[in-house]
Amino acid sequence: MKNKIFIFINVIGIGIAIACCIVAYLNWEFANDWDATEINSGSIYRVQFWREFQGKKDRYGIAPMALGGHIKNNISEVDEVVRYMSSYCDVRIGTEVFGTDMVFADSAFFDLFTFEFVEGNAKDFHNKSNFYISDETAKKYYGNQPATGKPITLIVLEKDGLRHPHEFVVGGVFKSKPYNSSIRCDVITLFENFWTINIEPDFNENSWGKWAHVLFLKVNHPEFIPNISSQLQQYIEPQNKVREDFKVGEYYLENFKGMMARNRKSPRLDSEYLIPGLPVEAIYVPAIMALMLLLIACFNFTNTSVSISVKRLKEMGIRKVMGGSRAQLILQLLGENMLICFAGLLLGLLLAEWAVPAYDSLWFWLEIKLNYINHYGFIFFLVGLLFFTSLIAGIYPAFFITSFQPTEILKGKTRFGGTNWFTRILLGFQFMLSFVAIIMGVAFYHNAKFQKEYDLGFSKTGLASAWINNEGAFNIYRDALSSNTDIEEIVGTKNHISENWYNDPVKFGSIEREVDIFDVGDKYMEVMGMKWIEGRKFIPNSETDRKESVIVTKEFVKQFGWNDGAIGKRILWRDSVQLFVVGVINDVYTRSLWQPIQPTMFRYIAPEKYLQLIVKIDPINSLSVQSFMRKKWKEVFPNAQYNGHTIESRYEESHSINQNLVTMFGLLGFFAVMMTGIGLFTLVSLNILSMKKEIGVRKVLGASISNIVFKINFEFIINLIAATLAGSVIGLYFANGLMSSIWRYFQPTSIFTIMVSAFFMFLFSVLVVSSITIEAASQNPTNVLRDE
């Protein structure tokens, strides 16, 4: 109670750090409990495979359509086989039409995966006329009325360009899965219903060359797994005969329990097709940030305790003379520290009421909440955090203060105060951690600006698209939009930069590379703002171009080593199709900046293959044109949900992640610097108290104010310089390492970033100590010496 200000400062620092630790724990728990609701996960296996191409081995999570039937009929050790596929569909309930990613699954789906039903049950899932919906969907469209048995309509776009209804009924309502589930959906129906919406004529139950679904097996006896895996290898040959350009190396079974974490390890699973788990960076970065703040808060506490301990020396001496043992005194001091840390814990819990929902709102894939009821892991974490904080913050002061002999203390021979070598080291660590935090904030701010302005090889504004799925629908919607003078161009395409493409091997002589391929229509590349390097564009309505001409990117030319020019080069696609390069454009970043740029090839297609409609508009008129597109869609396709969007919205995730990272590291830097500044203020204040007499004597002997200020702050200046040098190396390594794990293309941390961060750190430190040191150096020495 005699040190209210200093204790209050430490409680605030500990409270802020504990709130961040709570957020980090809940974030880790969310990832660690992925698929924890699946009670059968130990007996569920996913069919995956290895593929080796050009010396590189990759894992894939998809399976050929025909494989499931062969396993069911020929491998007796497998108890259940479930094909799982998700596809966008329009569904009508009453008068409301909504778009959803509908799941198509085999009849044993609910036997494998754990769903809690709030209405009905899964016993009739084998009935093709049934749809099963989530409780959120049921409440949204049926209100509080029972949904089971109610009609539900699937809207299917057919070859005439019109959408036709197919009637079903709600067979049951299940409780929505938590966000940390691989299997999460709003509508589920029997797999056979997929063929109702299928528009590909060569895609059927016996297709070996089509990969569009996940294949799950239930195996009740794990000892059968080696034999099942061995039998799977017999199906490599029929698949590889159909797709010689995409050959399976080896099938293997991946147990569902803990599968998501394993699939994210290197090499990361390709073609996941399920809800992916959290990236490793999203788990560890918040934990590292929270630990940094907690250490800063603990170091603050330790420094303060050691610095004010001079006031308790006589107390410790008298207690020892009266029979108190050192162990008793240590326990007393640790108990006091725990009481203060407990106050910090209570403050941290109050701050977490704001911090947890704030962090949850930053990430669309996250769902964390504060919950104390039956949340035993969280309670144990809080208790452990309290003891950890109390020990780290208080163990050194407790042992240090009680180490002196009582006779020396009471005779007045033992005096200390201000700082010592240990408190200087702790302050140096605080400076270093704070400087690292500032570097991270500045580095991610510069990177966000760099990536926002990065040239992806196409226009990032003034483009809108909508799925129309066939030529008839394209013509209908195009004619409806053509009356708007704010629309500069309307084109059709099958693949679109922000939506979809496919990847196939392409050969040139002995060189073979996997390339991204886009099938595009008239003027697509011009509307997208792609820049030509050499050659020509596609000739409108040219059958020759549709059959054999391609336009490639600069990276494509580089991968095949065409130093003598690309125009006229003959390449082989799918082992039999000859194509000729007629043009070269600048690189396009199909995977944004997350992954390395890929060689890309554009093919010219006829209107009958159009699946999407692209609109070019002036960005100034974007909102009004989007409103017009939505209105016209409802007029011409009243039974379908409008699915249009702008290209800006497709890259909003990237900008949002950047902005959120800037916010996170900005707050980290702010709190770290503020807590270090508070610690610095405390130490300087206590140091001045221990030097009052020395300051008075120096003034009497003629020392100037600047000389005294320098004397007071000299050790802190040295400390700050050393911490800045160490923090520069650590911050540079940490910032670049983290950014390189997230993006392939980013703005590396530069010397300029270090200098800006150092400027902020030094400026803040000067502002913190200048006022108090100048005031101390300006005092009348007679008052100080008379008091002494």
Key terms:
elongated; 788 residues; six-stranded mixed barrel; alpha+beta; six-stranded mixed beta barrel; 19% strand
Described by its quaternary structure, the protein is: single chain
The proportion of residues forming helix, as a percent range, comes to 40-55%
The share of residues in extended strands comes to 15-25%
End-to-end separation: 24 Å
Order the strands across the largest sheet as they lie in space: 4-5-10-7-9-8
What is the average of the pLDDT values? 86
Q: Label the overall shape.
A: elongated
Q: Specify the structural class.
A: alpha+beta
Q: How many β-strands, per DSSP?
A: 23
- Residue windows where pLDDT falls under 50 for at least 5 positions: none
Q: In this structure, how is the largest beta sheet organized? A: 6 strands, mixed, barrel
Note the total helix count: 25
Task: Give a brief description.
The protein has 788 residues and is α+β, with helices and mostly antiparallel strands. It has 25 helices and 23 strands. A hairpin with a 2-residue loop joins strand 4 (80-93) and strand 5.
